[in-house]
Every structure is written in structure tokens, then in C-alpha cells.
Write a structure and sequence with these properties.
The structure is a single chain. Helices cover 35% and strands 14% of the residues. The protein is of the alpha+beta class. The chain has two domains: 61 residues, no CATH class; 103 residues, no CATH class.
């Protein structure tokens, strides 16, 4: 294939890379010389600017191609500046089933049908009092769920009672604190309330907790 340089002169016996192949062609609108690659030439007419393309009465328009004129661009920019109506629905105001306080939830099916409590604490307290309303309640098999919910409440109460201080060494945050059972839960059997009673709980830090556990194991072995 023959090639042309920027001045339009033919280069003999020279194979240029694909990005540099092409030739100078006049712009159909103003006659200005343009460097056109073979792939661009196969697609059709090439113009030096958009104004030349719009001004040429003999331009070739490909099917399904939208031609943007200056008037259509002005109309589009004017329509974009107009304030668009908000499609977002207003929030729903509902009453909590546990504390009876009003709260807002997201619109839609989830908020309308499923969101019934204002917070997780109200939900935990509600299923503690009414365990049959929980989805995991099947023929009275709610002991595991009740234990987890009750333990979460009693653990927080024990930390607040001990002022977030280790009762053995006196350390506080940012040291990680644990809540320890003085008497192990297996001693109480099915009596969950007695196992998680505040009198059976004590706050210990992460360093003192294994020490106390080892002492209790030695006493049980003896």
C-alpha cells in the first residue's frame, strides 16, 4: 500500500504503521486539507469541524443517527435547567408496638408491612415478653433465642453496675472487658433467669478473666 506524508507527497516502498497511514483529503464543507486514515475514509465523509458538517447540504446521514443542530442543543440545555419533580415518596410515620412512640420509616413494602419497632432494643424486649411472635418460635423451641436476648440485656446491666471497671485489677477502657459468670450456667440447668442474674455476674478484663476461670477449675477439681 502506498503512503503519504503530511505534505501530500507519496512515499515509495515504505510501510508505515496503521496509525500513520492515510492521505490528505479536502473537507467537503470548507475545502480545508485533512489527514484521513483509511478506516476513516471507508466510513464516509470527514469534516474539519461540526459547523462544516451542519452547513453542508450534501452530507450523508447514517440511518438511526441523531443530528444535533444548534437549535436542538439549546432546547436540550433549557429542558435540563428546569426543576424536575421528585419521585421519592415521603417517609411513613408509624407507632412502635412496644414503646408506642411515633417513628419514621422508609416508604415501600418493607417499611409498610415489616418495620414495626422504632429500634432493636424495643424488638428484643418485645420478643422477650412475647416469644411466640418471633419467626424462630416453633412449638416452644425458643430457649436459644431467649438466652441470647436475655444475655445481651444482663451483660449491659452488669457493665453499667460495675462502672465499666475490672473488679479484680481495676482496669477500664480501652481495655477489653468481659462479663464472667461466678457460678457456671450448667449448674442452673434450664433456669436461665437465675444463671444470668446480676448477682451471678462480674466484670473482668481480658487478662483477669482466664486467671479467674483457671482458679474455678482448680476448685472444681479439688
Amino acid at each position: 500500500m502506498s503512503a503519504f506524508n503530511s505534505s501530500g507527497k507519496r512515499r515509495q516502498n515504505v510501510t508505515l504503521p496503521a496509525r500513520r497511514r492515510g492521505r490528505l483529503l479536502p473537507c467537503p464543507g470548507c475545502g480545508k486539507q485533512l489527514w484521513v486514515r483509511p478506516s476513516e475514509e471507508r466510513k464516509g465523509q470527514r469534516y474539519c469541524s461540526w459547523s462544516c458538517y451542519l452547513a453542508d447540504p450534501n452530507k450523508v446521514i447514517e440511518p438511526k443517527t441523531r443530528v444535533w443542530t444548534l437549535e436542538s442543543r439549546r432546547k436540550l440545555s433549557a429542558s435540563n435547567r428546569k426543576p424536575k419533580p421528585s419521585l421519592r415518596k415521603p417517609p411513613i410515620i408509624k407507632s412502635c408496638l412496644h414503646c408506642r412512640k411515633d417513628f419514621t420509616c422508609l416508604p415501600g413494602r418493607y417499611g409498610k408491612d415489616r418495620q414495626r419497632f422504632c429500634s432493636l432494643d424495643c424488638w428484643y424486649e418485645h420478643i422477650r415478653v412475647n416469644p411466640s411472635e418471633n419467626g424462630r418460635y416453633i412449638d416452644g423451641a425458643w430457649r436459644t433465642l431467649r438466652t441470647r436476648v436475655l444475655w445481651k440485656i444482663r451483660r449491659q446491666e452488669a457493665l453499667e453496675r460495675d462502672a465499666y471497671l475490672c473488679q479484680r485489677c481495676g482496669k477500664s477502657s480501652p481495655v477489653k472487658l468481659h462479663v464472667h459468670h461466678i457460678r457456671k450456667c450448667r449448674v442452673f440447668g434450664d433456669d436461665i433467669e437465675a444463671a444470668h442474674a446480676l448477682s451471678n455476674l462480674i466484670t473482668l478484663c481480658a487478662s483477669c478473666h482466664p486467671i479467674v476461670e483457671s482458679l474455678l477449675d482448680d476448685e472444681d477439681a479439688a
